[in-house]
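Appendix B. One record, verbatim.
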Amino acid sequence: MLKKFALLAVSTFAFTVNAYAADSLLDRINNKGTITVGTEGTYAPFTYHDASGKLTGYDVEVTRAVAEKLGVKVEFKETQWDAMLAGLKAGRFDLVANQVALTTPERQATFDKSEPYNWSGVMMVVRQDNNDIKDITDIKGRKAAQTLSSNYGELAVKMQAEIVPIDGMAQGLKLIEQKRADLTLNDNLALLDYLKKNPKSGLKIVWESPSEEKVGAGFVANKGNQEALAKISEAVIELRNDGTLKKIGEQFFGKDISVK
């Protein structure tokens, strides 16, 4: 009987803590308080420190814009990626803003996500003087610089390209510039970042995955925060409609990434 009582007490306490945690974010938003947001701070151009040491990046500036729209203050807690969702689950912060898409069933069972503030998908780049490759179907028999274990490499294999193995995206882009490969497939946001920082690379975008195949990243919270996330989603939509997200996207990527 004592053991049963102890288990019941623990369960009741856990329920109370979870209920409080779920309510507290909504209360802080409604009362114009401070929300805490977990982010890496080492993942440019999404979340990083600029030359002056200030925390910035696409996700960071979107978070600040949402906080301003909601009338709340935001406190960032920098955390390594591997520990970020565990920290959210443990209640170390209210939200995570770090390009999280919640694509796995495990994550979907534990966390909820707001309206996406950006979308990402597959993009293909070639040399600017290459006029033969214009679509994903054109890569059959072409040399594709890809990491073998990535989904981008798998797509290139599926489309019957000749794979030129690489260790990472930067190496693949160099091989294209050196005419040792014809193309590479990678994440559109990573490629947009590279092209913005290297305007004289001699590369161009020729294809992107269709909008229905793109994945959205948004603010992530523990289950039980649906009302708070609804308010956050409303702010994201307003910022998209008034052009704020477009402006932030152009600042970091040279393009609006808030729409599919």
